[in-house]
UniProtKB/TrEMBL annotation:
<feature type="domain" description="Laminin G">
    <location>
        <begin position="1"/>
        <end position="71"/>
    </location>
</feature>
<dbReference type="InterPro" id="IPR001791">
    <property type="entry name" value="Laminin_G"/>
</dbReference>
<dbReference type="Pfam" id="PF02210">
    <property type="entry name" value="Laminin_G_2"/>
</dbReference>
<protein>
    <recommendedName>
        <fullName>Laminin G domain-containing protein</fullName>
    </recommendedName>
</protein>
<dbReference type="InterPro" id="IPR013320">
    <property type="entry name" value="ConA-like_dom_sf"/>
</dbReference>
Length: 71
């Protein structure tokens, strides 16, 4: 799997069509213990970034588990 190097900022875009209320859409970990994840929690998309023992979450208020396309 190719590595994804992020220095300070990055943009990730995807299109999702699902009825799932829970799941992992993307997960990438670093050798130093950091990670980035895009999850579905209770039907809502959640971006999670972990670095240096600190975890930051960004939560949307738009449900995506409605079997419609979302970008």
């Amino acid at each position: 799997v190719p590595t994804w190097t992020i220095h300070q900022e990055a943009t990730f875009q995807c299109v999702v069509h699902t009825s799932a209320k829970e799941g992992i859409l993307l997960y990438s970990s670093a050798r130093e213990g950091g990670f980035v994840a895009l999850e579905i929690q209770e039907g809502l998309p959640v971006a999670v970034v972990g670095k240096g023992g600190v975890k930051t979450e960004l939560r949307s208020q738009t449900f995506i588990d409605d079997k419609k396309w979302h970008s």
